[in-house]
Description:
Order of helices and strands: HHHH
Distance between the termini: 30 Å
Number of helices: 4
Number of strands: 0
Shape: elongated
Largest sheet: none
Radius of gyration: 17 Å
Strand content: under 5%
Structural class: mainly alpha
Amino acid sequence: xxxxxxxxxxxxxxxxxxxxxxxxxxxxxxxxxxxxxxxxxxxxxxxxxxxxxxxxxxxxxxxxxxxxxxxxxxxxxxxxxxxxxxxxxxxxxxxxxxxxxxxxxxxxxxxxxxxxxxxxxxxxxx
Length: 126
């Protein structure tokens, strides 16, 4: 019985570290998306930014796990929609190519999170 309580405490520590890792990874992704939005906001090729950002999302999934990859993908898409594309400050995107690239980024980011996350991350493929 003593071992069972010890395993439960260890599992709780792992759950907390997985949650912390997911939050840290999502914040890194959000900060990266915000920085990229500030830098590329005036360029005419800014509609391609979400597709290029999938490389960052792949790295987030590899380093922090699948939860961080999924949360980071959603957070980055929200930041891009609100602060990179017109109308600024609104989640709606007027440009159809930018909207399409955001949808592709969401799809690829979630897929990368499930396919390339380490097996010790919070979500598992079964």
